[in-house]
Amino acid sequence: MITVSQLKYNNTADLLTEMARQYSSREAVLSPKKISRDYQIKFQSLTFAELDNLANAYAELFFREGVGPGIKVLMMMRPGLEFTAAVFGIFRTGALPVLIDPGMGRKNFLKCVEQIRPEALLAIPAVHWLRPLFRKKFASVKKAFSFGATPPPGVIRLEKAATAESIKNTGAAQFDAVKTTIDDPAAILFTTGSTGAPKGVLYTHKTFLAQVEIIRRVYGAGPEHVDMSAFPLFALFAVAMGMKSIIPRMDFTRPALVDPEVIIHTVKSQNVSFSFGSPAL
Fold this sequence. Notes:
With 281 residues, this protein is of the alpha/beta class. The model has no long low-confidence stretch (mean pLDDT 91). Helix 1 (13-22) packs antiparallel against helix 2 and helix 2 crosses helix 3 (81-93). The chain is built from eight helices and twelve strands. Helix content is 32%, strand content 20%. A hairpin with a 5-residue loop joins strand 1 and strand 2 (41-47). The strands form two sheets. The protein has a seven-stranded mixed beta sheet with strand order 7-6-5-3-4-8-9. A five-stranded mixed beta sheet has the order 2-1-11-10-12, sandwiched between helices.
Protein backbone atom coordinates (compact mmCIF):
# COMPACT_ATOMS: atom_id res chain seq x y z
CA MET A 1 0.00 0.00 0.00
CA ILE A 2 1.36 3.42 -1.00
CA THR A 3 0.51 6.07 1.58
CA VAL A 4 0.24 9.81 1.04
CA SER A 5 3.24 10.44 3.27
CA GLN A 6 5.43 8.34 0.98
CA LEU A 7 4.72 10.49 -2.08
CA LYS A 8 7.37 13.21 -2.41
CA TYR A 9 5.75 15.14 -5.26
CA ASN A 10 2.53 17.10 -5.76
CA ASN A 11 2.26 16.97 -9.56
CA THR A 12 2.90 14.12 -11.98
CA ALA A 13 5.11 16.44 -14.06
CA ASP A 14 7.47 16.76 -11.06
CA LEU A 15 8.71 13.27 -11.93
CA LEU A 16 9.96 14.44 -15.34
CA THR A 17 11.73 17.38 -13.70
CA GLU A 18 13.47 15.01 -11.31
CA MET A 19 14.50 12.60 -14.08
CA ALA A 20 15.84 15.54 -16.12
CA ARG A 21 17.90 16.56 -13.10
CA GLN A 22 19.32 13.07 -12.61
CA TYR A 23 19.71 11.93 -16.23
CA SER A 24 19.81 15.14 -18.25
CA SER A 25 21.82 13.89 -21.24
CA ARG A 26 20.36 10.37 -21.37
CA GLU A 27 17.87 9.56 -24.13
CA ALA A 28 14.30 9.69 -22.79
CA VAL A 29 11.98 9.05 -25.75
CA LEU A 30 12.59 7.72 -29.26
CA SER A 31 10.03 7.85 -32.06
CA PRO A 32 10.34 6.22 -35.51
CA LYS A 33 11.05 8.64 -38.35
CA LYS A 34 11.84 6.42 -41.34
CA ILE A 35 11.91 2.71 -42.07
CA SER A 36 13.67 0.92 -44.92
CA ARG A 37 12.52 -2.19 -46.77
CA ASP A 38 14.82 -4.33 -44.65
CA TYR A 39 13.28 -2.90 -41.46
CA GLN A 40 16.14 -0.57 -40.58
CA ILE A 41 14.42 2.11 -38.51
CA LYS A 42 15.69 5.64 -38.09
CA PHE A 43 14.53 7.19 -34.83
CA GLN A 44 14.35 10.77 -33.62
CA SER A 45 14.91 11.29 -29.93
CA LEU A 46 14.93 13.68 -27.00
CA THR A 47 17.06 13.53 -23.90
CA PHE A 48 15.41 13.95 -20.50
CA ALA A 49 16.61 17.56 -20.35
CA GLU A 50 15.28 18.31 -23.85
CA LEU A 51 11.93 16.66 -23.07
CA ASP A 52 11.67 18.70 -19.87
CA ASN A 53 12.43 21.89 -21.82
CA LEU A 54 9.86 21.06 -24.49
CA ALA A 55 7.22 20.39 -21.83
CA ASN A 56 7.98 23.79 -20.29
CA ALA A 57 7.74 25.53 -23.68
CA TYR A 58 4.33 23.98 -24.30
CA ALA A 59 3.16 24.72 -20.75
CA GLU A 60 4.03 28.39 -21.20
CA LEU A 61 2.07 28.53 -24.48
CA PHE A 62 -0.96 26.73 -23.02
CA PHE A 63 -1.04 28.90 -19.91
CA ARG A 64 -0.68 32.11 -21.91
CA GLU A 65 -3.68 31.04 -23.99
CA GLY A 66 -5.89 30.47 -20.96
CA VAL A 67 -5.32 26.76 -20.31
CA GLY A 68 -5.00 26.49 -16.55
CA PRO A 69 -6.30 24.66 -13.47
CA GLY A 70 -9.36 22.52 -14.11
CA ILE A 71 -9.47 23.09 -17.88
CA LYS A 72 -10.11 19.83 -19.78
CA VAL A 73 -7.89 19.43 -22.84
CA LEU A 74 -8.99 16.74 -25.30
CA MET A 75 -5.86 15.28 -26.92
CA MET A 76 -6.01 13.83 -30.42
CA MET A 77 -2.33 13.80 -31.33
CA ARG A 78 -0.34 10.91 -32.71
CA PRO A 79 2.01 9.23 -30.20
CA GLY A 80 5.47 10.76 -30.42
CA LEU A 81 7.93 13.14 -28.85
CA GLU A 82 5.66 16.19 -28.99
CA PHE A 83 2.70 14.21 -27.61
CA THR A 84 4.72 13.13 -24.57
CA ALA A 85 5.97 16.67 -23.93
CA ALA A 86 2.48 18.14 -24.39
CA VAL A 87 0.94 15.86 -21.74
CA PHE A 88 3.58 16.85 -19.18
CA GLY A 89 3.13 20.49 -20.23
CA ILE A 90 -0.61 20.29 -19.57
CA PHE A 91 0.05 18.72 -16.15
CA ARG A 92 2.24 21.72 -15.31
CA THR A 93 -0.57 24.20 -16.02
CA GLY A 94 -2.93 22.40 -13.65
CA ALA A 95 -5.19 21.49 -16.58
CA LEU A 96 -6.42 17.96 -17.31
CA PRO A 97 -5.44 16.04 -20.46
CA VAL A 98 -8.39 13.96 -21.71
CA LEU A 99 -7.42 10.76 -23.54
CA ILE A 100 -10.02 8.78 -25.47
CA ASP A 101 -9.12 5.63 -27.42
CA PRO A 102 -9.95 6.39 -31.09
CA GLY A 103 -10.17 2.64 -31.72
CA MET A 104 -13.60 2.55 -30.04
CA GLY A 105 -15.23 3.82 -33.25
CA ARG A 106 -16.56 7.21 -34.29
CA LYS A 107 -19.99 6.90 -32.66
CA ASN A 108 -18.64 5.99 -29.23
CA PHE A 109 -15.82 8.51 -29.53
CA LEU A 110 -18.19 11.39 -30.23
CA LYS A 111 -20.42 10.32 -27.34
CA CYS A 112 -17.41 10.54 -25.03
CA VAL A 113 -16.53 14.01 -26.34
CA GLU A 114 -20.08 15.23 -25.77
CA GLN A 115 -20.12 13.72 -22.29
CA ILE A 116 -16.82 15.23 -21.11
CA ARG A 117 -17.33 18.69 -22.69
CA PRO A 118 -13.64 19.66 -23.12
CA GLU A 119 -12.81 23.37 -23.09
CA ALA A 120 -9.69 22.95 -25.24
CA LEU A 121 -8.66 20.66 -28.09
CA LEU A 122 -5.12 19.65 -29.02
CA ALA A 123 -5.23 17.64 -32.25
CA ILE A 124 -3.69 16.97 -35.63
CA PRO A 125 -4.83 19.45 -38.33
CA ALA A 126 -7.19 16.92 -39.98
CA VAL A 127 -9.31 16.80 -36.81
CA HIS A 128 -9.67 20.59 -36.79
CA TRP A 129 -10.72 20.63 -40.45
CA LEU A 130 -13.38 17.98 -39.77
CA ARG A 131 -14.63 19.48 -36.49
CA PRO A 132 -17.25 21.75 -38.15
CA LEU A 133 -19.03 18.60 -39.36
CA PHE A 134 -19.63 17.70 -35.71
CA ARG A 135 -20.10 21.21 -34.36
CA LYS A 136 -22.57 20.21 -31.64
CA LYS A 137 -20.28 17.52 -30.22
CA PHE A 138 -17.36 19.97 -29.96
CA ALA A 139 -19.45 22.99 -28.93
CA SER A 140 -17.69 23.29 -25.56
CA VAL A 141 -14.24 23.80 -27.14
CA LYS A 142 -13.09 27.42 -26.75
CA LYS A 143 -9.35 27.03 -27.48
CA ALA A 144 -7.89 24.97 -30.32
CA PHE A 145 -4.26 23.83 -30.64
CA SER A 146 -2.59 21.69 -33.27
CA PHE A 147 0.66 20.06 -34.20
CA GLY A 148 1.41 19.54 -37.88
CA ALA A 149 1.15 21.41 -41.16
CA THR A 150 -1.77 23.58 -42.35
CA PRO A 151 -4.34 23.72 -39.56
CA PRO A 152 -7.42 25.93 -40.12
CA PRO A 153 -7.18 29.67 -39.36
CA GLY A 154 -7.49 30.49 -35.68
CA VAL A 155 -5.93 27.23 -34.48
CA ILE A 156 -2.81 27.81 -32.34
CA ARG A 157 0.16 25.75 -33.49
CA LEU A 158 2.46 24.08 -30.97
CA GLU A 159 5.28 24.85 -33.38
CA LYS A 160 4.81 28.47 -32.29
CA ALA A 161 6.41 27.43 -28.99
CA ALA A 162 8.85 24.71 -30.09
CA THR A 163 9.28 21.31 -31.73
CA ALA A 164 11.36 18.28 -30.81
CA GLU A 165 13.95 19.43 -33.34
CA SER A 166 14.04 23.13 -32.46
CA ILE A 167 14.28 22.54 -28.70
CA LYS A 168 17.75 21.03 -29.25
CA ASN A 169 19.04 24.39 -30.42
CA THR A 170 17.45 26.62 -27.80
CA GLY A 171 18.25 27.34 -24.20
CA ALA A 172 16.40 25.89 -21.26
CA ALA A 173 12.71 26.79 -21.33
CA GLN A 174 11.36 27.95 -17.98
CA PHE A 175 7.83 27.70 -16.62
CA ASP A 176 6.74 28.09 -13.02
CA ALA A 177 4.38 25.14 -12.66
CA VAL A 178 0.99 25.88 -11.16
CA LYS A 179 0.86 24.76 -7.54
CA THR A 180 -1.16 21.58 -7.14
CA THR A 181 -1.75 19.00 -4.43
CA ILE A 182 -1.65 15.25 -4.91
CA ASP A 183 -5.43 15.14 -4.51
CA ASP A 184 -6.08 17.57 -7.38
CA PRO A 185 -7.51 16.17 -10.63
CA ALA A 186 -4.74 15.30 -13.09
CA ALA A 187 -6.36 13.66 -16.14
CA ILE A 188 -9.44 11.94 -17.51
CA LEU A 189 -8.82 8.62 -19.23
CA PHE A 190 -11.57 6.73 -21.01
CA THR A 191 -11.91 2.96 -20.96
CA THR A 192 -11.90 1.30 -24.40
CA GLY A 193 -15.52 0.15 -24.31
CA SER A 194 -14.51 -3.45 -25.06
CA THR A 195 -16.54 -4.73 -22.08
CA GLY A 196 -19.35 -2.16 -22.13
CA ALA A 197 -19.97 1.53 -22.71
CA PRO A 198 -16.73 3.61 -22.57
CA LYS A 199 -16.36 5.37 -19.24
CA GLY A 200 -14.30 8.38 -18.27
CA VAL A 201 -12.09 7.78 -15.22
CA LEU A 202 -10.81 10.75 -13.23
CA TYR A 203 -7.18 10.39 -12.17
CA THR A 204 -5.66 12.54 -9.45
CA HIS A 205 -1.93 13.24 -9.25
CA LYS A 206 -1.89 10.86 -6.30
CA THR A 207 -3.23 8.08 -8.56
CA PHE A 208 -0.46 8.55 -11.13
CA LEU A 209 2.28 8.95 -8.54
CA ALA A 210 1.17 5.83 -6.66
CA GLN A 211 0.96 3.81 -9.88
CA VAL A 212 4.51 4.80 -10.80
CA GLU A 213 5.74 3.69 -7.38
CA ILE A 214 3.85 0.38 -7.57
CA ILE A 215 5.19 -0.39 -11.07
CA ARG A 216 8.70 0.32 -9.77
CA ARG A 217 8.30 -2.00 -6.80
CA VAL A 218 6.36 -4.86 -8.39
CA TYR A 219 8.03 -5.04 -11.82
CA GLY A 220 11.46 -3.62 -11.06
CA ALA A 221 11.03 -0.88 -13.66
CA GLY A 222 13.65 1.83 -13.60
CA PRO A 223 16.54 3.61 -15.34
CA GLU A 224 18.42 0.38 -16.05
CA HIS A 225 15.63 -0.79 -18.40
CA VAL A 226 14.76 0.12 -22.00
CA ASP A 227 11.02 0.29 -22.54
CA MET A 228 9.02 -0.26 -25.72
CA SER A 229 5.73 1.56 -25.15
CA ALA A 230 3.31 -0.40 -27.34
CA PHE A 231 0.50 1.33 -25.42
CA PRO A 232 1.10 5.10 -25.88
CA LEU A 233 0.11 6.14 -22.37
CA PHE A 234 2.81 3.93 -20.88
CA ALA A 235 5.52 6.14 -22.40
CA LEU A 236 4.54 8.68 -19.74
CA PHE A 237 5.10 6.15 -16.96
CA ALA A 238 8.40 5.03 -18.48
CA VAL A 239 9.74 8.58 -18.65
CA ALA A 240 8.56 9.24 -15.10
CA MET A 241 10.67 6.27 -13.94
CA GLY A 242 13.80 7.27 -15.85
CA MET A 243 13.46 4.56 -18.47
CA LYS A 244 14.46 5.12 -22.07
CA SER A 245 11.17 4.70 -23.93
CA ILE A 246 10.87 3.51 -27.54
CA ILE A 247 7.61 4.30 -29.32
CA PRO A 248 7.23 1.51 -31.92
CA ARG A 249 6.07 1.98 -35.50
CA MET A 250 2.50 0.67 -35.39
CA ASP A 251 -1.16 1.65 -35.57
CA PHE A 252 -2.03 1.90 -31.88
CA THR A 253 -5.77 1.67 -32.63
CA ARG A 254 -5.25 -1.75 -34.28
CA PRO A 255 -2.52 -3.53 -32.31
CA ALA A 256 -3.42 -6.96 -33.71
CA LEU A 257 -2.40 -5.78 -37.20
CA VAL A 258 1.13 -4.82 -36.18
CA ASP A 259 3.97 -6.01 -38.43
CA PRO A 260 5.86 -8.54 -36.25
CA GLU A 261 9.13 -7.93 -38.10
CA VAL A 262 9.04 -4.25 -37.15
CA ILE A 263 8.46 -5.07 -33.48
CA ILE A 264 11.16 -7.77 -33.43
CA HIS A 265 13.68 -5.44 -35.09
CA THR A 266 12.86 -2.67 -32.63
CA VAL A 267 13.30 -4.99 -29.65
CA LYS A 268 16.65 -6.30 -30.91
CA SER A 269 18.16 -3.07 -32.24
CA GLN A 270 17.23 -1.03 -29.15
CA ASN A 271 17.93 -3.76 -26.55
CA VAL A 272 14.38 -3.51 -25.23
CA SER A 273 14.05 -5.16 -21.81
CA PHE A 274 10.61 -3.95 -20.72
CA SER A 275 7.35 -3.50 -22.62
CA PHE A 276 3.68 -2.88 -22.08
CA GLY A 277 1.05 -3.62 -24.74
CA SER A 278 -2.42 -4.98 -25.38
CA PRO A 279 -3.23 -8.72 -25.28
CA ALA A 280 -3.70 -8.62 -29.07
CA LEU A 281 -0.10 -7.48 -29.53
